[in-house]
């Protein structure tokens, strides 16, 4: 799903993120998981979670609301956990 960071670069992105950025990415990931479960409970899929995360990341990039390290850590987590 995510076009900006290929899966083979996910580990490198997570490695370069600070602990604070990794924690922020984990919090964002869990927020998206809760949103998808609440909004899509009867038809929850990993594809829907990936789509929500991708949309959120695009908005974070557009608004500058998260650091590049946090976004990289979130992409890495998405790739490792969801196989995105």
Topology summary:
Blueprint: H1 10-16, H2 19-39, H3 46-63, H4 68-82
Helix pairs in contact: 1-4, 2-3, 2-4, 3-4
Task: Tell me what the structure shows.
It is a single chain. The chain is mostly helical and about 80 residues long. It has helices spanning about 10-15, 20-40, 45-65, 70-80. Helix 1 (about 10-15) packs across helix 4 (about 70-80). The N and C termini lie close together (about 5 Å).
Helicity level, as a percent range? over 70%
**Structural class computed from helices and strand pairing:** mainly alpha
Largest sheet: none
**What is the CA–CA distance across the termini?**
6 Å
Pattern of helices and strands: HHHH
Strand residue content: under 5%
Which short descriptors sum up this protein?
single chain, 84 residues, mainly alpha, 73% helix, globular
Summarize the structure.
With 84 residues, the chain is mostly helical. Helices cover 73% and strands 0% of the residues.
């Amino acid at each position: 799903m995510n076009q900006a960071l290929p899966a083979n670069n996910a580990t490198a992105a997570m490695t370069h993120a600070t602990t604070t950025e990794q924690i922020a990415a984990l919090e964002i990931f869990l927020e998206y998981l809760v949103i998808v479960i609440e909004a899509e409970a009867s038809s929850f899929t990993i594809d829907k979670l990936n789509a929500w995360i991708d949309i959120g990341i695009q908005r974070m990039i557009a608004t500058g609301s998260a650091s590049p390290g946090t976004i990289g850590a979130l992409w890495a987590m998405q790739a490792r956990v969801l196989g995105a």
